[in-house]
Amino acid sequence: MEQQLDKYGLPLLESIPLGKSEYVMVKTRLQYFRKHYEHASINTDHVFFDGESIMCKTTIHVDGKLVATGMAHEEKSKNHINATSFVEVCETSAVGRALGMMGIGITNSVATYDEVKNAIEQQEANAKANELLEYKSESLSSKLMIAIEQDDEQGITEVEKDYRGDKALATKVKLALTPEHLEYMAERKERKSLESKEKAKAKHDKNVALAKDFVEKQKNTED
Fold first, then answer.
1. Which of 50, 120, 205, 208 could bond 19 through an S-S bridge, CB–CB 3.0 to 4.6 Å?
2. Hey, how many other C-beta atoms are within 10 angstroms of the C-beta on 31?
3. Residue 222 pLDDT > 70, yes or no?
4. What's this model's pTM, rounded to 2 decimal places?
């Protein structure tokens, strides 16, 4: 049976669905390599290993010539599979990348299964995070505008407390404010700054007065 080729003329191998793409397993790439390259070798070395993480480098030679390399890195603490097999996972990933660099099994990318899967999961997580950010910012900006219009200091403080420490959320909330609301918040900030300085000065003056009073009493005691 004639080998099917993709649009680039590369071998079209059996794949599995992964997200919206197709992924060719490393074992399938390896089987193809063993069948079609008789005078070839695959060697994997541990470039770095400390018991908790590992980096592997795979080299592929055909007819004595270096034709491809692949690097991979794994950490033991990454997941439950790596907890017992992170060395094996890293070696397999390095082999898969090297075979991919030869053009074997890269219908969509050279990335390993875990890399593609993690990328998809990260995209989904980012989408959910962005959706949540939009919801929270719309809710808080609405509450803040109402509090400003009602001159509700307690309401403003509660909204600020909700977005404090979250720079992205705070930015989106403030971007939703009208110029009038922003002007109000700027004046409020200046007013609160002056009040804070006045309180600090009053506290300082009180401490100075207490200190002078203490010194005076000490003198009177000595006399």
1. 120
2. 13
3. no
4. 0.47
Asked which of 37-41, 54-58, 59-63, 129-133 is least confident by mean pLDDT, the reply is 129-133
Contact criterion met (CB below 8 Å) for 56 and 63: no
User: In the predicted model, is pLDDT for residue 24 greater than 90?
Assistant: no
DSSP 124-193: HHHHHHHHHHHHHHHHHHHHHHHHHHTT-HHHHHHHHHHHTT-HHHHHHHHHTS-HHHHHHHHHHHHHHH
Type of residue at 100:
G
Query: 91 and 98 in contact (C-beta within 8 Å)?
Result: no
The 10 Å Cβ neighbour count of residue 69 is 13
Q: Are 32 and 39 in contact (CB under 8 A)?
A: no
**Contact by Cβ (8 Å): 148, 156:** yes
Q: What percent of the chain has pLDDT over 70?
A: 79
Query: Which are the contacts of 88, defined by CB distance < 8 A and separation ≥ 6?
Result: none
Residue 22 identity (one-letter amino acid): E
Structure tokens at 34: 């063993």
Overall average pLDDT of the 45-68 stretch: 94
Measured at the CA of 168, the angle between CA 163 and CA 172, to 5 degrees, comes to 80
Mean pLDDT, the chain, rounded, equals 81
Can you list the domains of the chain with their CATH numbers? Answer: 16-111 (3.30.160), 121-222 (no CATH)
Position 108 pLDDT exceeds 70? no
Which candidate, 107, 121, 42, places its Cα nearest to that of 79?
121
